Amino acid sequence: MRVLDHARIAELPNPYFGKVRDCYDLAPTPEAPDGRRILIASDRISAFDRILAAIPFKGQVLTRIARFWFDRTGDICPNHVLSYPDPNVVIGTRLTILPVEIVVRGYLAGTTSTSILTQYRAGARRMYGHTLPDGLRDNQALPAPIITPTSKAADGGHDAPLTAGDILAQGLMTPDQWEAVSAMALALFARGQAMAAMRGLILADTKYEFGTDGAGRIFVADEIHTPDSSRYWIADGYDAAFAAATRPPSFDKDVIRSWVAARCDPYRDTIPAIPAAMIAQTSQVYIDACQTITGEVFCPDVSGATPLDRIRSNLAPFFATA
Question: How far is CA 98 from CA 54, 172, 208, 217, 282, in A?
């Protein structure tokens, strides 16, 4: 009853259902000429380009953490947020999302096919337009953070690695856009790493999405520095884990991602049933991450018969625009 596995609301127009968020675009309606967009964070968790499960309170956690970071990075890059009518919901400026995911990595880490650790273990040293030195160990800090962009695959597809040259040659961004986005992404990551360190965390890598408004201005969109878009390690446990060649203790969806990857080929096999204990553990990881990152106690909103009932009530003023 307290899990939001979807947010299908028939009264809202122009739906788009993503892996994690269910969105409604109000821009084409006469009542919303400012180009607003409703983004509802569900409790779905995705990895390996698939939906794995629904995690209690995950959507509220993501919205809360993203809000924390949006409020503290506006001097680096404007963001899409206009208001927060519900703990799971953002009203944002409608943007044309640039067709490249900007991943910034500070460590040799990862479990997916596009991660630099997976490719490095396979013998690659030249990737995403960067050359990594020999002799790096799993989860070791890179000489400097690097941008490892990927394509944005359609639902069910797989993201593919890109280089800066690929992005420009394919016309995915203009040279000015690429220069601006690269600078903003590295600055956002530096801010994130510095603030995470103050909380006893290591921000190992993260993903950003950028978009443009009607005037061509660039905004950061979706979410930033959440456990879904980022890899957080607990700093106190990093040195021991690195010495033992084990995965550092983390505050991210690697908990469930690693469990799945240890039991099947997640890109080809049927995902095994995830035990209730693992779902509960993952929920607690998200809540602990929220409290550690923000420095505030997480108090989930449990009003309404279900999360969807509460969201529908809070979004009722927008139904008239449908």
Answer: 28, 7, 11, 12, 31
Q: Which residues pair with 230 in a beta bridge?
A: 206
Q: Tokens 């108090």: give the residue.
A: 299
Q: Is the pLDDT of residue 9 over 50?
A: yes
Give, in order, the Cα–Cα distances in Å from 218 to each of 14, 25, 214, 314, 321: 24, 19, 10, 29, 27
Predicted local confidence at residue 82, as pLDDT: 95
Q: How far apart are the first and last CA of the chain?
A: 27
Greatest C-alpha distance within the chain: 61
**pTM of the complete model:** 0.90
- Read off the amino acid at residue 7: A
Could you give the CA distance from residue 149 to residue 160 in angstroms, rounded to a whole number? 9
Spatial neighbors of 148 by CB under 8 A, at least 6 apart, are 103, 104, 105, 114, 116, 127, 128, 130, 161
How much is the pLDDT for 157? 55
Tokens of 232: 């957080």
Residue 71 in tokens = 């409020």
CB 212 within 8 A of CB 80: no
DSSP annotation of 225: S
Q: Which two tokens stand for residue 253?
A: 């969806």
* pLDDT, greater one: 251 or 180: 180
322 pLDDT more than 50: no
